[in-house]
Structures are given as C-alpha cells and as structure tokens.
Amino acid sequence: MAKNAINPNFLDIPVLRGKVLGVLVYRGYARLCDLSNISKADIYDQVHNPTGTQRDLNPTHAREAYEYVRTRDLAFWPEVFLCTRNKNVLKYHSISPNFPDMGILTLDVNLANNPSQIAISRVDGNHRLHYADGNDPSYPGIEKIVSFCLTHELTREEEIQLFKDINDNQRAMNTSHLDNIEVRLTPEEQLKRRNPELYIAQKLGRDEESPFYKRVYEGGSRVTGVDIPLRTLRTGIEYMLSRSTQLPILEDAEAQYRVIRNYFIAVKKWQPTAWSEPRKYIMLRGVGLWSICFIGAHVIDRTLLQEAFDSELMLAILQSGREWDWSRSGDFVGLGGRGGALEISNRVTRTLHDESRISSQDLFRKIMGE
Question: Is the pTM of this model over 0.85?
Fold first, then answer.
C-alpha cells in the first residue's frame, strides 16, 4: 500500500476482487492506522442514532486489542471487515485484462475523513481499529500490516444483517443489541408470529403507557435510567408465555401485549419502591424480573378466567397474599437463575387467592376493541 503518486490524499492498495456467498468484496493488506483513519463506527443509540448498526464501544476491550498488537512480535487477527456507504470513496482498476480480479483499490482519504458522513463503516473490527489511528497522543498509531475485507454497495439493511450474522454466535456480543437488530430486520407482523416474546419485550420499553417506558436497554450506547436489558426482559416474557394457559389462546401478540402491560402496571403499584429505587431491590434484576414474569402467568390466568384483563383486578390478586421483602437482603437471598425465579414464584403464588372463569374468544374481542 502507498500514497497515490499523483495525489497524496489518495491511498493505493493492491487487492483481490471476488464474491463471498454473493457479497462483492475487495481483499488486501494495509497498515492498521490507515484502516482506522479511513473508517468510522456507526454506533447504535436508541435515542440519538436509532439507525446505527454498531454496538457500543467497550474502552477496556479496545485498549486490550491495541496493546496486544502493539506489544506482540508474533500475533494474529482475523481480517477487519469494512463496508463502503459512499460509492465515490473508492475506485478499482485491474492490473491487466488477463487478470480482471487483481488490481489496485484507490481510496479517497479526504472523503473518508469527512466528519458529516460515514463513507466507510466498520462492520467487524471496531475495537481493533479504535485506538490505532494515532489521533490520541496516548496511543501512537499502529503501522503494522493487517488483512482487511471491504465490501461495496450494500444496503443499510444488508450491512446490518451481515453484522448480525458475524456476531450472532460470539460470546462477547451484547445480546440485547442482537435482539434489537432482529426486531429492526423483521417485519412487525412476522415478528409477532415468530417471536412474540421479543415483540412484547421491546414494545414494553417503547410504549408511553408501559411502566418500562424508556427503561429497556436495547444495546449500543448506554443511556442513564435505561437499566433493564432487552434480552433479560425477553427471556422473562418467554417464561411467562410458556407457563400461562390463557395467554397463548389469544390470537395476536398485540392482545397478549396489552394484557401483559396491564400486569406490569399492577406490579409497579404493588411494589412501587422496587421501581423507584431498583438498585436496592431484586425485582427488576435477573432472577427478580424473571420471578415476577412467572408470577405474571399465574395472575394473568386468574384474571382472564374472570373475563377481565384490567390492572386493578391484577393488583387485587397480588395484594391478596402475604407481604414480601424484595430488597437485596430480603426474603429471596441466595436464589438465582431460572430455578431461583421459579422458587420465588411458587412462594408468592401459593399465598394468592381470588375468584375465576372465562370465554377466550369473547375476551380476545374485548381486548382488541379497547
């Protein structure tokens, strides 16, 4: 790789051109600092950048990646994967008619560095590239050569799909971010049929009438007060749907959502301090959240069997049992995971009492007519 002989604001890189499973790519080798300088991460932020593709940066992980490549004489990384979003940022010409897929890739550095746009995005490799450009005096540029793969002319949806495919099975990937991407890639009606628990969990965080409104973390940049991971809530809703006998009878995930939302409204009224001071209580954390989802299956079934779905009746059922201490040092210390959540649910629901009976079709029409 070298500066263009005619214009130093261009980089010339020898590459091989080809297709990988239908995706047009250019493969080559370049200095890590140059790859860092010409690319940007499009960090997803559910408030400020809802069309972003990339998960939030972990500074510790980025520093570890930087030190690894800086200090090791023998090291290896998989290739960095980049994607052009502005077709004018590159030009390709082959070395001869006999070898059309061997050539020179010319990159416009000024266009790539334009702060008003992302001309080349980072699909995979943001942590490896973040500190490598040399723009921070504490982190000198890394001039070591690494391999890269650059794809061209993908739509934003195709880019984010490839990001999901690459990261889906990596242990370190933020699962809430993956869930958010799945929602964005799936048409609503299809999502409601295939993954009702995900549809319901995300809507709980976005519906102004929901007690979870603006509290569900969907990945990307952290936002103050957004403290319930989408994946944790999704798992809880999945537990609720699997234990309920009445919710699966409802013919649409939207109907299920309206009932479940009313249940959580009742829970918030039942244990208001657990919602206002979540760090002191377990109710909105892991085992606690899952346990109230298991309890929800029980309470919702009792309510639906009375041909109702209002939060006040659900609250009355919750209040019919004994009082529990949901604090970190309260009645449920030492319980964790799905098994712990079931144990908490069993303890609570055994003390609840009410009246019952229902017609599911009539109830469905009543819910959807609200």
Answer: no
